[in-house]
Specification:
It is built from seven helices and 14 strands. The strands form four sheets. A six-stranded mixed beta sheet has the order 10-9-11-12-13-14, with helices on both faces. Strands 4-3-6-5 form a four-stranded mixed beta sheet, covered by helices on one side. The longest helix is centred in the C-terminal third of the chain and has 15 residues, at about 175-190. It has two domains: about 30-120, Ubiquitin-like (UB roll) (Roll); about 130-255, Cytidine Deaminase, domain 2 (3-Layer(aba) Sandwich), CATH 3.40.140. By secondary structure, it is an alpha+beta fold. The chain is globular.
């Protein structure tokens, strides 16, 4: 057993009942406070909480520059985590805390404002990737997914060049895995205009919006995309790929980045 999972004895039915030991992925609430005010509670695996907290705040437009962050404290209370973020600006100014329930069953803030603002953006970047590279990166993502193989309970995301995976993150939520990548790129000043994200899980609009806000020009998933995310990809210029299998994938939007398309 690792800190990422907990073993339980259960009963399995397979032409009769028998005892079986299984691993369940760890689930811990992470409550984010911004300048002393509670923003949200995310359910996560408790891995990389600083990147997850900052990535959420960045992708939800509370912060726009690492220089705004004056203090970041993570408190681990065993059964829950707290992230206390202090900034030198007023992130609440002129902000109406509208909530929306996302397709990941989480709460998003200011969804309408996010869509209206982000859909006006155009994502640049001249990264070029071949079909063979896309299939290879998706295969490697699966091979790295040891926690998924153990628990069957997590999603995985990676920041890549066409040639290799640079960062790999896994969590119970596909949103969290993306936010961890966003937070690390944001805090570590990682250039992303020549990168791509390869991920698991359905590409709904909130996932697409996060990737647009990060500025990564290519998003590829082993699952399918919703109609709203396809429309947003075409408006913003994101190259959107889905339904990746061993030898095939779907191209929802190219924008000149897929070699041979």
């Amino acid at each position: 057993m690792s800190s990422d999972s907990q073993e339980y004895v259960i009963h399995e039915y397979r032409r009769g009942f028998s005892r079986k030991t299984v691993s369940s992925i760890r689930e811990v609430p992470l409550t984010i406070f911004l300048n002393g005010r509670e923003v949200v509670t995310l359910l996560c695996t408790a891995k990389y909480p600083e990147y997850l907290a900052v990535g959420f705040l960045k992708s939800d437009a509370f912060i726009s520059s690492p220089a705004q962050i004056t203090d970041l404290t993570i408190r681990d209370e065993g059964d829950r985590l707290t992230a206390e973020v202090e900034t030198c600006h007023d992130p609440w100014k002129d902000r109406v805390m509208e909530r929306s329930i996302t397709s990941g069953c989480g709460k998003g803030t200011n969804f309408g404002r996010n869509v209206a603002t982000i859909s006006k953006r155009t994502v640049g970047g001249d990264v070029r990737v071949s079909p063979e590279q896309i299939l290879t990166l998706a295969k490697e993502l699966h091979e790295r997914s040891t926690l998924y193989k153990t628990t069957r309970g997590c999603h995985n995301s990676s920041l890549c060049t066409p040639e290799e995976i640079l960062l790999f993150r896994e969590d119970i939520g596909r949103h969290n895995a993306i936010d961890m990548l966003c937070g690390q790129c944001f805090l570590d000043d990682v250039a992303v205009d020549d990168k791509m994200i390869v991920t698991t899980g359905r590409v709904a609009s909130e996932i697409l919006l996060k990737v647009v806000r990060i500025g990564v020009p290519v998003l590829a998933s082993t699952a399918v995309a919703t109609s709203f995310s396809v429309e947003l990809a075409r408006k913003t210029g994101i190259t959107l790929i889905g339904n990746i299998r061993d030898d095939s994938f779907w191209v929802y939007n190219d924008n000149g980045r897929i070699i041979g398309f």
